[in-house]
Amino acid sequence: MPRQKSKPQAQGLAEGLRNARRACKLAMVEVAEKLGWSQSTLSRIETGLRNASPEEVSALLAVYNVTGDQKERLMVLARDIDRSAWLETRYAEVPEQAKTLAALEADATRIVGAAVTLIPGLMQTPTYTRSLMSAAGVAPGDIQARVELRMERQKVLGGGKPPAYVAFMDEAVLHRRVGGARVMADQLRWLLAMAERPSVELRVVPFEIGGHAAVDGAYVLLDFGDDRPVVHLEHRDSGLFLDQPADVAPYLRATASLTMAALDSMQSVQMIEHLLARYG
Q1: Which Pfam families does this UniProt record tie to the protein (predicted)?
Q2: Least C-beta-crowded within 10 Å: which of 59, 132, 177, 276?
Q3: Domain presence at residue 49
């Protein structure tokens, strides 16, 4: 039976605490001395190997002079550390879940992205992402940081040992002119370039299939070998991580169903090439 990976909210809390310490330029040994802790305790908290209690998180944030919304987000994670799912609302400039998703993608052995209306995040061009966020009403001052994080996430597919990546896209994704014809033409060319990578499998679910397993929503499924898989769902102003087997099972079934319904990689590339000619 797969062992239990640290919960996404535990990893998100660890990342947030680590970044807060670095922001105030304190070494781990300095923080440990201030609180009377061992350095190994702080190290285990920052790597997600040990859950920090709300009281411990509060003490750390006091040392780091973290207040306001940032403090509240991290305290919520500490209080909800044992919950079966992690729901994040009221996004900051860059959502905590986006940072955690990037870390999970870097650890994954296989990633499945199912998209119904938009190009999956790991395959978006910067101009497509920027146009998408602008159209979705993201505050102009927040867009650049989110675009940069998304581009940073994509590096996982170009490393020396990238995870296997399967992108399922409804055909509608290829017809939606996010940013206009030029942006979409560049985006489709990028999809074709990505499809040439040995670790990437691009699969289009054609209109003729009708309803399918992902028609009611996009998802990201992350596999970790011997660890249990994790699912991430993203919506307008919220995100949700699922890691309990009963919650993840429907997405495993959806992935199996999409594998049967979608065009194979060669047919999908041919469809994209045909549509690219329409964008000029």
Answers
A1: DUF5753, HTH_31
A2: 177
A3: yes
